[in-house]
């Protein structure tokens, strides 16, 4: 009886592995199709004929007092006595669409004006990571 159960479990496991392989292949095929030249989405950057040449201004809002509102006093588990300032919050990109970018900023405790700024953004198609360094 035990051998019958073991054999059944082995057969089901093999069937599961074969099915997983088929599903993985379908997923890879789907992902590749998004990047292929024949993809139905290959024209997503085309300009529509209804588009105008009007200037679209950048969203700029007052920033008075926002730094102090975003300042973090301490993170959970953070040891006491750290000597740097840290901030976290959202930067509004498009208020009409409700779009904002999350940020976490740590200021260097020494010579912060001479240190490079590192901006790390996650998101977009297939969750790409974008890294920007300014000095």
Write the layout of secondary structure elements.
Elements: H1 2-35, H2 66-70, E1 71-72, E2 86-94, E3 99-106, E4 117-122, E5 129-134
Antiparallel strand pairs: 1-2, 2-3, 4-5
Walkthrough of the structure:
By secondary structure, the chain is α+β, with helices and mostly antiparallel strands. The protein folds into two domains: about 1-35; about 65-75 and about 80-135, no CATH class. It is built from two helices and five strands. It has helices at about 1-35, 65-70; strands spanning about 70, 85-95, 100-105, 115-120, 130-135. Strands 1-2-3 form a three-stranded antiparallel beta sheet. The chain has a two-stranded antiparallel ribbon with strand order 4-5. The N and C termini lie far apart (about 70 Å). The mean pLDDT is about 70. Keywords: Carboxypeptidase, Hydrolase, Protease, Signal. Belongs to the peptidase S10 family.
Query: Helix count, per DSSP?
Result: 2
- Report Rg: 25 Å
Mean pLDDT across all residues, rounded? 71
Instruction: Summarize the main sheet.
Output: 3 strands, antiparallel
Pick out the low-confidence regions: none
Total strand count, please? 5
Strand order of the largest sheet: 1-2-3
Q: Structural class per helix/strand content? A: alpha+beta
Strand content: 15-25%
Distance between the termini: 71 Å
- Label the overall shape: elongated
Number of domains: 2
| Share of residues in helices | 25-40%
Order of helices and strands: HHEEEEE
